[in-house]
Amino acid sequence: MFKGSKVLQPEDLNQMNNIIEKLKTQSKCLVVLIVDDSGHLITNTESDPSIDPILLGTLTAGNFGATNELAKLIGEAEFTLVLHEGNKENIHMLAIGDCGILVVIFANTTPIGLIRMYSQKSVTALLPYLEKMQVEKKASKKDLPSDEDLENLFNW
Amino acid sequence: MTMLNYAKKEIICKIVYYGPGLSGKTTNLKFIYGKMDTQYKGKMIAIATETERTLFFDFLPLDFGKIKGFTTKFQLYTVPGQAIYTNSRKLILKGADGIVFVADSQIDRMDDNKSSLKDMALNLREQGLDIRNIPLVMQWNKRDLPNIVPVEKLEETLNFRKVPTFEGVAHKGIGVMSALKTVIKMVLNKLGG
Amino acid sequence: MKLSQIGNKIDPINEILENFLDDAGVTCAILCDMGGEILTTKGDITTLDFTNIAAMAAGSYATTKGIANLLGQSEFSLLFHQGTKNNILISSVENFAIFIILFDANTILGVVKQKSQEMKETLKIIFEEIVKGKGIVIKKAKVFEERDLDKVKPSKKKPKPAKKDEAEKEEAEEKDGSSKKFDFDSLMIDDLDDIF
Prior knowledge:
A: Beta-Lactamase; 4 helices; C: alpha+beta; 5-stranded antiparallel sheet; 44% helix; globular
């Protein structure tokens, strides 16, 4: 049962919600989202009802993925700061281990230093909960098909 | 990867439409978007170029409402087919629970189908997924065009796993809903098993 | 804008990029179309997989555009990513092109920002000339299937369960809070038929 799925328990979600609500209050940001590594929205702080959090989660996850790939392409393991500057709002994104992404949207009048500091703290606090969700480890290398296996699959 | 959220009583799965450029992946999603009742669908996103070629992905969230006490959601994605977007394809496959491989039936696209399938196998592996056992269906699209490969030949060449296949004319909706429904069943069966 | 549309105007564009490299002291600059196809590159790119960089940058830019739409602002004019050695800055010249600037820790971000802003203005003039001269229409890529974003509301609707007895069972479960277990055996496969 639950083969290969992630499981999120109510008490853990509560804890995560507390962490991001606190982040919102302390950093004076507008919206906080937690998105998992497949792009699924885990949770978000209450925000403007005109903003669809699922779409926002998908777009930010895609964006973060692209950014990470860019980092690799220019020879960085990861970017230590990912920041998008808009005319009203900015977005700051951080990886939560390799399990998910913390997305913080804030007014561009809010100091980035404040956002960075509290976001970093939240990531540390969130990591255990996200790791706990990962009930099943990814298939290990030896279970995955070798080059030879793949060649045999398609005998073109 | 499926997320089972006990707090929100919600189950979310990810289905990816894969295949060579212009094989009709986005057309599949657009048809589903048009066909589904409003209560079952969210907003569709298409990250595309100005010429409407997929640049990063398309996204369509489906919400089947509460079934057996759980809200069941499927998030459909397409990958960009063009060669330059190889990194994007890899990204989109991350955490996929099921795949619809959309092949272009035209004779002159057979090599593209083959290389796309191989590309998919490699990209899945990079995400820790195995093409030999991930829920997968195949759609032989563009059956309405002239100069197409016979279905038997497509089966023989591409359907290495003998997975369910569907003859498709995606813009008319032929073979679209049946392919989706089948892959969803396969994903749910796997979760249950 | 496509390379084929730019034609011989690529020469002044290259010149602008070269001047920018000198002024801002950055490692390299890549100019690509909105889809990530390279238009031109300047600077030291020999070690870089710039085709993939441009494709990824275009994806990154397009998704932020989608986010901006969702948040009700026109765009995120500047994407800045800081690494341990290399930094990257992505911005666009209206809907004409995307530029990607790579620079290291020795270069001052403020200078790069300012100089890139100036470069953007000059490039914009050239692109506008091309458009005007050739009568090209630059279409804006749309992100959402439904254009009217004001109507985007969170999906609060709760679809009714397909069968009545299920609704009752569900309510009972909700009351005693016992639905910790998800029943995969009597799975919703039959219910799917109702939906499709």
